[in-house]
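# nightly structure sweep
# worker-07 picked up a monomer target from the shared queue
# config: single-sequence mode, recycle default, output format = structure tokens
# input follows
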Amino acid sequence: MPSAPHVFYVDAGCFSGNATGWGMVIYNQSGRVVLSACRKELIDVEPVLAEAIGVRWCLQKAIELNMTDIVIVSDAATVVSCINSNKHVAVIDLVIQDCNLLIEQLDSVVVTHVRRHLNVVAHGLAGFSNVVGTKLWMGVVPNSISAALCNTADVSAVFS
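# output follows
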């Protein structure tokens, strides 16, 4: 996996009742959590669109935090493929265009795919959003999610 000073893991979840949630966790080069967040909106979208919106959220957060050299990790292969190539999927085309405009504002961005079992913390945060709504934690993940850290691959490998 490519290296960068900050790695963003992101995932989305679509809930009953026309709600969509996202989870994000940012790691530094030492594999330590810089920030974790979840977000919930009362919108009903297709899962692939929810995943694309999640990647856009990461790019917006990177710009907000002045993190200009990043890797974004997603388990949404279609979204990653659309960002990294000229592949088009109509339902996400406009969000992918937004992502490409945001990428132009950063020095270095790599968007890469992992299997879901390597994205368990972001996945847990996405699900947690259905309970707590939109929240942000600096330097930690919430206690209810932190147990998932024990089940993920060694994130420090991302930086080697």
